[in-house]
Amino acid sequence: MRIQNLLFAQYFILITFPLMSSSQSLVSISNPFIDTSESNYIQNDTLSHKLHNFDLHHWEIPSKDPDRIILNFNGDPSSRRAVTWRTDSSVKKSFAQIALASANSNFTNNLITLSASIEEFDLGIYKSNKSLIVNYHSVVFDGLNPNSIYVYRVGNGENWSEWIQFKTAKREYSPFQFVYFGDAQNDILNHWSRVIRKAYQTAPNASFVIHAGDLVDSAHRDYEWAQWFKAGGFIHSQWTAIPVVGNHEFQKTTKSSPRKLSIQWRPQFTLPIEENLSNKLHETVYTVNYQDVLILVLNSTDNLDEQTEYIKDKLGNSDARWKIVTSHHSVFSPAKGRDFEYARKYWKPLFDKYGVDLVLNGHDHLYARGHVPIMTTDLDKSGKINTLYITSVSGPKQYKADIQKINGYKSDGYAVDILKEETQFFQVISVNNDKLTYIAYTALGDEYDKAIILKDFTSGDKFLK
Fold first, then answer.
1. Domain ranges in the chain?
2. Which top CATH class is 176-464?
3. Cβ contacts of 358 within 8 Å, gap of 6 or more
4. 193-202 vs 222-232: helix crossing angle, rounded to 10
5. What is the pLDDT of residues 14-59, one digit of tens each?
6. Which CATH architecture fits 67-167?
7. Which of 258, 124, 245, 255 is nearest to 185 (CA)?
8. Are β-strands 208-211 and 176-181 bridged in parallel, bridged antiparallel, or unpaired?
9. Is the entire prediction scored with pTM above 0.90?
10. pLDDT in tens, 195-253
């Protein structure tokens, strides 16, 4: 019997069954923090220090095995992809292997192995976390073939993940679909799991997924990030994620410190860095160009004026067939006590000017779809529109609509088409030539709302069907 099992027996005497909740797991057998075969863990630790790990779920505790594996865009989607994962601090060297996928396992004969960048990270920076040192690892796959299925895995040379597949984009325009979620935020593992899993069942071949902010409730609390990663499971490692920062991704680390971006955000995502923006906005404001569709990701919490210039530059210099903007705060907030006046005053005119087709928001914890029509002297009988605006929620936290406020947006040229409270949603958006099809599904997988934008690429005219 290994020593760690003897230690387990000693712990078990101290921890009786009545003290264990049904949601807790005894993790000592596989827990690297009490594995006496690892001398770096036992030289300076005491049994009491190790015992504190027992109030963590097994899926919170890092080990030599890679966990929290996630794909992100980082550069040209037809030739690049970034992967990030986590281990315990004993893993000092790590790798990612990749190959063109095949219908059998022979792809292993043609592997490319890349060394990972490693970032040591102390969860204890935030007082509510256990003071654990973990390592985040990242690799950017470059020089990939367009429109190709690749298979990859990550690990330290002995402890590997499973093989995981993804497909690169085409260089030119081609039809595709993607998924969009509003706030997950609260009670994530219990109530958001079924939503992301139903979305995967509904659109398993989606090219990417947009998480429109407030992925968690407490920015720095690792327990909530652990829930988010467990809820999505392998989906995070297979669907390429476009995470959008929300207000709940900002929080103080101490009572006297200023609010700061989630301490986990930059270590756990490997996102594009816009060098012309201030450091504060790095990896929270970026652009993805996917098969002639522009996706502009904004940070609606910080440095709004700086982003206004960024919007002008990116939209003004883009000739993409379709233009999509996503930010957390709703431009036309439908909920009581919410108002993103800055966006209506400074961003919406740019969306109108540069022909943004679709804006995807969260924050208000209810569902609203509306549009900005082209105003004519004929009382808008033309049916033309500028932009379709969506506010949605995927988690259990729900708010009430403020009808009076929504009606007040008419002066901004906004017309609400549909509202829904007390419902968890996910959305699937399909782009096919001159048609963008938007469908909202409930957590049950039932189609609730549908809108189609028909676009004349010569004139720029758009009609809502």
1. 3-55, 67-167, 176-464
2. alpha beta
3. 322, 323, 324, 325, 387, 388, 390, 429, 436, 438, 453
4. 30
5. 333 333 333 333 333 333 333 334 334 333 343 334 434 558 999 9
6. Sandwich (2.60)
7. 245
8. parallel
9. no
10. 999 999 999 999 999 999 999 999 999 999 999 999 999 999 999 999 999 999 999 99
